[in-house]
Amino acid sequence: MEDGYYIGRRWEDLDTDILVKIFQSFDILELTSGIAHVCSAWRMACCDPLLWKTLDLSMMKSNFIKIPLEPYVYVDGRSDKILTRLLKISMSLSRGNITTLIFHFNLFVSDEQLTYTAERCPQLRRLVLPAWNRIKKTGICKAIRAWKDLESLTMPGIANPPYLMEEISKNCKNFRELKIMGPCDKFFASTLATFLPTLKVLSLRCSMLYKEALIIVLDSLPHLEVLNISHCLLIEVLPPPGPKKVVSEIDQSIIEKASRLREFLTCMNDSCTMCQRTKIDEGLMRWYRYEEGLWKADEKQNKMLLNKYKWQPSLWSCVAKDILPQVGLVLTHD
Amino acid sequence: MALELKSSDNKIFEVEELVAVQSETIKSLVEDGCADNVIPLPNVDSKTLELVLDWCKNHVDMKLDEEKLKEYEDKFIEVDQAVLYDLLLAANYLNIKDLLNRACQKVADMLKGKTPEQIRETLNIVNDFSPEEEEEIRKENLWAFEE
Fold first, then answer.
1. Cβ–Cβ contact A116 with B under 8 A
2. ipTM of the predicted structure?
């Protein structure tokens, strides 16, 4: 024990727990801007798994312009490089501990960035990646193969889903949850039925949804527990020479089919802002027009009261009416 | 009901139980029946303990007045680095959640926007990375994947 009173406080010797607590209040930009470069003790604290369960990049957008040819966006070089650097530092500090990865809908990740990240997040369980413009089929498949533990995916609508769904089905044995931020047609629904029959949760909110696709989903996904079609633009294709028709209410046959689900979340209301927006945007939501962060919301998170409730067609109009408003949901026809 | 706390420099503080149990550490001691005698706190000096107890007392007194409490907290945390450091350690050791959170927030605010060099200068930290580690960090900071 030294003589005299120790005056200096050594900030590098601060308890790791305290350092981690301080760093927990930093967002990803602050965390990767040099804190880990102060000294080796601080770098070690920056690598604490507590800081890396979720990598939330949803405050970052690419600096881009739209172009009329594929991939329909051109990303400014500097913007790309900033993202690369951020990913490199994050991957280095996170040490394979990331389980949730979130990208902004206007962050156009390149194939290379995706592969680099995927290889270094082997424990990934949840991915939110709404923009695939610059990603090739080979790129996304390679990434899927790196994520054996993947359970949940938020993705854009894609024209040709089989290759992807097959890769998920072969590789991700725990896959249970899918959210599509884009149109869902008959082909897409059949692909789900073929390759992901064990799907438990499906969200198609705020998108164009073909009625035949909805029926396929309800008929052919036997393990489905939660289906969210809130604010969807429901389209019925009438036999030729009939046009496409917008469906304004969910009919009894669909309600009956959906009665086996634990939660069937719907909202089809002319006075609902979100429903109006989907209509204006013709089923492909232009999220950049709306409130920051709005795109991330999903009704299925409000499921406390509905857990024990089993939908019965006969109860649809009486009991449901009482419960739904409490959880922020609206009946389709009221 | 009053408790007696003894700082590392042997000063005795008499405190109401209600105030003292803001510290989860002391609360456990009370619940386990070990608080009958003077409670020694070898990790906290008298200067820091006085501040901590002031925090605790005010949190009991102003519990219902959020605005007043916030004003108090903001003023309380305007301390120099050395005191802030001691408060961090004391709040951690005594397990006083709101004080620890506030102190951590204060440090975080101090650090945001600063370069590593600026942080080292402010807090008197030595750069102890080996040349190899420095090189790794340099590569990490490049804007491309290839080295």
1. yes
2. 0.93
